[in-house]
Design brief:
The structure holds 2 protein chains of 2 kinds. Helix content of chain A is 33%, strand content 22%. By secondary structure, chain A is of the alpha/beta class. In chain A, a hairpin with a 2-residue loop joins strand 9 (231-236) and strand 10. Chain A is globular. Chain B is an all-alpha fold. Chain B has 2 domains: 2-72, no CATH class; 93-314, MetI-like fold (Orthogonal Bundle). Chain B has 12 helices and 2 strands. In chain B, strands 1-2 form a two-stranded antiparallel sheet. The chains are: A alpha/beta, B mainly alpha. The A-B interface holds A 62, 64, 67, 88, 91-97, 100-103, 105, 108-113, 115, 122-123, 126-127, 158, 160, 171, 174 and B 124, 217-219, 221-230, 237, 240-241, 314-317. Bound molecules: adenosine-5'-diphosphate, iron/sulfur cluster (SF4) and magnesium ion.
Chain lengths: 332, 321
């Protein structure tokens, strides 16, 4: 792989992001020094067990971290602009228009008191100068795109008149209607039926690809990500433990944690199970062991792991791993 | 909707009937009002005659039957004291009461909503704690005391407002109101503020609590992620949801205000139905008391009906049946 011609700069560059919470029990370092890129038109999977800081990375990019949380350090460069340096006014022009975010539970993401037409329209009112008629047409078009039957009639319906899957389609429509260049989807299908999950993931991939937009897919489900993502970032206790092209990470995981996640994916045909193959549980993020945070659960832990934290070290083709004893790349 | 209205109307009649019985029974146990009507030195004969004139010589059952029959013909009896129909007496004074009740409610809402929203959206800020402390004071202070302090400070010391009475009124659609002139407003301010304090304090707490709850919801975060500004998030998305539980207690609050209006009207010599009630109780003017109570019951039913409709208007998930 040669480095030239100069690739265009990534759409999003997260550099050494630290998102900390000041609590009575001490500082909770929900995200502690995360760095990764999202290229233009790229799908990046952000994976890890619950509590690993995935959502906080997403909220940080949206600048939606509320006290007692704060972005304690790092930069978030969106198309060259550091989002951490923007004020609320400037951020409102970014949110929704440039970067959209959707959340896990479609049952609660929509305001129960407004029609979905109104909630779609709100996005256009905020971010475009379209006339009422043009906006209405855009809304109908968008609902059609996400697969809502009879979109025109459905505009006047309230959220409670839709099923969970349909609501998440509406949420996706709202997120995409102003044409954002980056969509952050935080466990968008976790709350839904397995059969609907795949449909919605495909829908999102489609909506993003069609517009040349990028997608950060946050999930604890490595299987879902492996089919969609171009690149994968693995987060454990607020730190990135592995990062690389999806193929590399899935086929040649180098971090014992990633390997554990992969091993716990049931094979096709079997019922999905929780991540039970990794022994132990995620430690309390306030009382992380010194050294490697994964050491208490790692089958390969050595004394050095408990003393010094491994740095994230890049290998060929950007496959990076934070481990003193990275797994050998299996012969391909 | 049609069935609902029918149901409500039927309910209304039932409530009024129940109240009429209750009131009548209670009245019968409160002694013979004849003695309050006649001069102290009246003879047995004069007393008996007065009793006959008042219709009190019949049995209770007959009295009630007569009363019911007259009521159905729109005749609620005559005031013993004023010698005029009790219902017209009430209707005459009703606008004065409604005026301070509505103004008090308006004051309570206008002050409580922004403060409650602010406090609920920023529960950790000092301002929020101040709002909570203030509302606790407002709840604890007895209304009559607030009224007297206001009179002392603003009427006696500063001489900004008159201490009692209603001031000039104008007729609007046949109803006499006083808030249209500066002089009329000067008269109504103190009693309305006095009346609003308790409701204001409670409203503020409810709105704060509801806002805290609503602001945690996903759709609020989604709204922020959409790029909705602070004001839109708080009022368009937050407050409207916070109002739903409020609407359910709104009817009760309005009822409270009407009840507390008796006290406020007495302190400020405000010529409303509350003052009329208190005066009538002193004078044993039974027909007026009966009409007052039935009237208040009617208002409760009507307000609750309005609340149901309002509820359905705000929340699309609610269908009135
Ligand atoms: N308000 C808060 N106060 C303290 N800690 C918090 C708060 N919100 C989140 N955290 C911490 O942030 C960590 C990461 O959470 P999150 O990003 O939601 O994980 P994930 O999305 O990967 O499941 C959690 O372990 C939690 O301890
Ligand atoms: S650094 Fe040591 S403990 Fe941590 S993952 Fe690697 S081998 Fe395991
Ligand atoms: Mg999460």
């Amino acid at each position: 792989m040669t480095a030239h011609p100069m690739p265009p700069s990534p759409l999003l560059q997260v550099r050494d992001l630290r998102t900390w919470f000041d609590t009575f029990g001490g500082v909770v370092k929900a995200v502690d020094g995360a760095s990764f890129d999202v290229g233009r038109g790229e799908i990046v999977g952000l994976v890890g067990e619950s509590g690993g800081g995935k959502s906080m990375v997403g909220y940080s990019i949206m600048r939606l971290i509320d006290p007692p949380g704060r972005i304690a350090g790092g930069r978030i460069l969106f198309d060259g602009t550091d989002l951490c340096g923007l004020d609320e006014r400037a951020l409102r022009k970014i949110r929704g228009r440039e970067i959209a975010m959707i959340f896990q539970d479609p049952m609660t993401a929509l305001n129960p008191l407004y029609t979905i037409g109104d909630q779609l329209d709100e996005m256009l009112r905020l971010h475009t100068g379209l006339s009422a008629r043009e906006r209405r047409l855009r809304c109908i078009e968008m609902l059609h795109e996400v697969g809502i039957p009879q979109p025109e009639a459905r505009l006047g319906n309230y959220p409670h008149q839709f099923s969970g899957g349909m609501r998440q389609r509406v949420v996706i429509a709202i997120a995409m209607i102003a044409g954002p260049r980056l969509l952050i989807a935080d466990e968008p299908t976790t709350a839904l039926d397995v059969t609907i999950q795949a449909q919605l993931l495909r829908l999102m991939k489609h909506a993003v690809e069609k517009r040349g937009a990028s997608l950060i897919l946050i999930t604890h489900d490595l299987a879902a990500v492996s089919q969609m993502a171009d690149r994968i970032v693995v987060l454990y206790c607020g730190r990135i433990v592995e990062r690389g092209r999806a193929r590399d990470v899935i086929e040649r995981p180098r971090h014992p944690y990633t390997r554990g996640l992969l091993d716990s994916i049931p094979h096709q045909g079997l019922k999905r199970r929780r991540l039970s193959q990794i022994p132990g549980t995620v430690p309390d993020i306030r009382k992380l062991p010194p050294g490697c945070a994964f050491a208490p659960r790692c089958p390969m832990a050595a004394p050095v792991c408990r003393e010094s934290a491994p740095n994230l070290v890049g290998g060929p083709s950007g496959h990076a791993v934070a481990c003193h004893f990275p797994l050998e790349a299996k012969a391909a | 909707m049609f069935g609902y209205v029918i149901k409500r109307a039927f309910q209304m009649v039932l409530v009024l009937w129940a109240v009429s019985v209750l009131v009548f029974v209670m009245m019968s146990f409160t002694g013979d009002p004849t003695y309050m009507m006649v001069p102290l030195d009246a003879t047995e004969e004069q007393i008996a005659q007065a009793r006959r004139l008042l219709g009190l010589d019949h049995s209770h059952l007959t009295q009630y039957r007569l009363f019911l029959k007259n009521v159905l013909q729109g005749d609620f009896g005559r005031s013993f004291v004023f010698r005029q129909p009790a219902n017209s007496l009430i209707l005459e004074r009703l606008p004065a009461t409604l005026e301070i009740v509505f103004l008090a409610m308006a004051i309570a809402l206008v002050v409580a909503i922004p403060l409650g929203v602010y406090a609920g959206a920023n529960p950790k800020r000092a301002g929020s704690h101040a709002v909570m402390a203030g509302s606790l004071v407002g709840i604890s202070l007895p209304g009559f005391w607030v009224g007297m302090v206001l009179i002392f400070v603003f009427a006696v010391k500063l001489q900004l407002f008159p201490s009692s009475g209603r001031g000039p009124t104008q007729e609007v659609f046949g109803i006499r109101v006083s808030f249209l002139t500066w002089e009329g407003l000067r008269h109504i301010i103190l009693p309305a503020v006095t009346l609003s304090i308790g409701t204001l304090a409670i409203l503020m707490r409810i709105i704060r609590a509801e806002m805290m709850e609503v602001m945690r919801q996903d759709f609020v975060r989604f709204a922020r992620a959409k790029g909705v500004g602070q004001r839109g998030v708080l009022f368009r998305h937050g407050l409207k949801n916070a109002l739903i539980p409020l609407v359910t207690v709104f009817g009760l609050m309005l009822g409270d205000l009407i009840a507390f209006a008796t006290l406020t009207e007495t302190i400020f010599a405000w010529p409303g139905i509350g003052k009329l009630l208190v005066d009538s109780i002193y004078r044993g003017d039974r027909p007026v008391i009966v009409v007052y109570l039935m009237f208040v019951a009617l208002m409760f039913v009507v307000v609750n009906f309005a609340v149901d409709v309002l509820y359905a208007l705000i929340d699309p998930r609610i269908k009135i049946r």
